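ok new one. same drill as before - structure tokens go in, u give me an amino acid for every spot. 394 of them this time. try not to just spam alanines like last time pls lmao
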């Protein structure tokens, strides 16, 4: 006897899980949304400080969120669109400048606090009659599964029956572990330092990235004129930088960024996030399906992690469209096959970029310079790269 019968249960109401729950409920499915954390505090007021966790949201992801009516819920004053991207390296003299106008777009993406996207999605889920929340709660056990679905017990003691369980509970996914799905993971040997900083000169609505031998440093524009920095540093170097006081940190940061925006004049608290890659061999097992970071984790250098997750949601919502019919294995296998290969390719590409841009051997510096110059001076190729990036790579 179960406490609830659903078509789909979703474990995790982060950006990807909440988006999947909402999109599938919009398609007419009855959804159970299980989230471990307690209800978040109120939304920030317009003049509140910006959170340290932000994401570059691509135009494709924005379109996915717009179609669902989610993007419109974001406080417009805290969304910062960027029109250019500027990329260069510590070693070598080449640089690549991407401009949205070259592909007839207004922008190449938007920088938004993760908490705002989560809040907008979770509010929409609260208003959706087809979604029942279980919060704070988590899946404790998978009791049984057969061709028609599975039964799960939550920590609260509730027993739910669903045709499908989506594991959207992040990189460490406890739900994936319960299903016995194998994962290959490893450290990139780098830690990302994130902070919000003020600079002497304005950010010019540009996403800047300087590759250093110790890892890439990104300055992402925020709507309040500050920049959000993601400084991925080799672990030993990250420990040195993290130990600096605020003025030492601002000085080291300005220097690492070649003072492209003048001196760094102030910085917020800093946060350190170890960088890990992850590939899952099985995406579907015992009617448990992976989505978002539970399925794939990539280096933040290309700002694609959650964008890949939104593409996961998009495909799944295109495949599951008829709630009057049982959810068969065919669409689930198709989703798993397609997204596994697409995200694997993207992950390999980002890993290779991270390696190549970390090299300081002269022949590799020359080769890299040559590659960057070729991109910069070949307009059709540059446009093709931009088109790929705005479409979430895959
Ligand atoms: C430094 C850094 C910068 C980044 N920048 C970008 C960027 O610019 N652009 C981009 O696209 N991506 C970026 N990413 C990646 C992006 O942050 C992630 O891909 C994204 O947050 C993953 O979302 P998710 O919903 O899959 O998982 P998560 O955000 O991890 O959410 C998982 C949810 O599941 C819940 N949960 C956990 N365990 C359970 C359980 N047992 N039961 C129920 N619920 C549970 C959690 O509370 C949480 O709400 C960056 C990552 C890092 C580290």
């Amino acid at each position: 006897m179960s406490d609830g019968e659903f078509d789909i249960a979703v474990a995790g109401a982060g950006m990807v899980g909440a988006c999947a729950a909402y999109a599938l409920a919009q398609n007419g499915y009855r959804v159970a949304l299980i989230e471990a954390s307690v209800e978040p505090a109120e939304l920030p007021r317009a003049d509140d400080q910006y959170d340290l966790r932000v994401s570059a949201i691509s135009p494709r992801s924005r379109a996915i969120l717009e179609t669902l009516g989610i993007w419109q819920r974001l406080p417009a004053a805290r969304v910062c669109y960027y029109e250019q991207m500027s990329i260069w390296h510590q070693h070598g003299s080449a640089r690549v400048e991407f401009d949205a106008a070259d592909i007839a777009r207004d922008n190449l993406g938007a920088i938004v606090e993760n908490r705002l996207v989560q809040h907008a999605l979770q509010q929409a889920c609260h208003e959706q009659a087809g979604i029942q929340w279980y919060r704070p709660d988590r899946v404790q056990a998978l009791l049984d599964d057969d061709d028609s679905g599975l039964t799960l017990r939550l920590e609260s003691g509730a027993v739910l029956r669903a045709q499908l369980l989506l594991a959207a509970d992040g990189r460490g996914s406890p739900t994936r572990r319960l299903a016995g799905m194998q994962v290959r993971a490893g450290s990139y040997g780098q830690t990302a330092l994130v902070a919000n900083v003020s600079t002497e000169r304005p950010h010019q609505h540009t996403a800047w990235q300087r590759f250093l031998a110790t890892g890439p440093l990104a300055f992402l524009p925020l709507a309040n004129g500050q920049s959000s920095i993601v400084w991925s540093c080799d672990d030993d170097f990250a420990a040195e930088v993290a130990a600096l006081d605020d003025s030492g940190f601002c000085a080291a940061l300005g220097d690492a960024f070649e003072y492209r925006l003048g001196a760094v004049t102030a910085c917020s608290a800093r946060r350190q996030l170890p960088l890990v890659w992850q590939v899952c061999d099985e995406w579907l097992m015992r009617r448990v399906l992976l989505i978002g970071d539970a399925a794939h984790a990539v280096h933040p250098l290309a700002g694609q992690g959650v964008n890949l997750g939104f593409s996961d949601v998009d495909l799944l919502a295109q495949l599951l469209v008829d709630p009057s019919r049982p959810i068969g294995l065919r669409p689930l296998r198709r989703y798993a096959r397609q997204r596994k290969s697409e995200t694997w390719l993207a992950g390999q590409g980002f890993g290779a970029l991270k390696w190549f841009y970390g090299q300081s051997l002269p022949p590799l510096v020359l080769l890299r310079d040559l590659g960057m110059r070729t991109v910069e001076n070949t307009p059709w190729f540059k446009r093709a790269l931009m088109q790929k990036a705005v479409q979430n790579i895959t």
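The longest strand covers residues 183-199. and btw The first helix runs from residue 15 to 26.
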